Amino acid sequence: MKPERTEAIILHTFAARERDKMVVFLTPDHGKRKGWAYGARSLKSRFGAALEPLAKVRIGYVEKEADEVVRIESVDLLRSLFPAQQQLLSSVAATYIAELVDTFAQADDPAERIYRLLDRTTEALLGGAPPIAVVAYAEVWMLRLAGIFPSTKACIECGGSLERPLRFNERQQGFVCEHCATREAELVPNDVAEALDAMARPIDQFVASAFPPNVLFELRSLAGSIRRHFLGHELKSFEVLSSVIGAS
Ligand SMILES: [Zn+2]
Fold first, then answer.
1. Distance, CA 159 to ligand 1 centroid (Å)?
2. How far is the CA of 149 from the centre of ligand 1 (A)?
């Protein structure tokens, strides 16, 4: 038995047995972990409200040999998502980003950059940043960190450098140059390509650029097409997010 103490963000929890919770959390150094929080469902639980999805915590757990599920010993709340939950769109956006990260993060794989993405996007939502811009940033960056987002610098076919406008070929799942582009390649509007470039900057700067809704929409469509092609399905909370965006 090896005790660990680390910072983590709770991805989701589910009720298990009568008094317990199964907790899925992301750590910077050990990737995504799963653990039992014994007694977490009882009223006098020592875990209190620290096991809420997207709460940033300091977590202590014990790893049992040959068991991928750890035993959670202590959870101290560092940052709650509660204020963002007061606002429907921020709250749904947070749930969606948690599912996105949960889907792509691997167990036992150092996930420092993915952890930072989740940490910064959650913080941006808490700070009142426009949720759709935060979601677009998270969607593109999650694909980049997973190594799935294609290069916007080199043609996927010939390796030559890409000029504007960018052309996306869905069949090849990549950007192609003017010479390699067939009729099926879709032109990416220049303001959308600019927004993609702007994602090299930290999220607060990206959000401050205030890209218009149609640019964010196109960015999200592109990321969505790449994500669905890779996963073979859509994220569960995608429809809920779309309907809340549609109603806002
Ligand atoms: Zn080419």
1. 6
2. 17
Q: Separation of 141 CA from ligand 1 center, angstroms?
A: 24
The CATH number of 83-247, from 1.20.1440.120, 3.40.50.150, 3.30.70.890, 1.10.3720.10, is 1.20.1440.120
The structure tokens 């959000």 sit at: 207
Cβ-in-10-Å burial (0-12, 13-18, 19+) of 84 comes to buried
- State in Å, rounded, how far the first CA of the chain is from the last one: 50
How many Å lie between the centroid of ligand 1 and the Cα of residue 179?
A: 6
What's the pLDDT tens digit per position in 30-45?
Answer: 899 999 999 888 877 8
* CA 155 / ligand 1 centre spacing (Å): 5
- Is the confidence at residue 1, as pLDDT, over 80? no
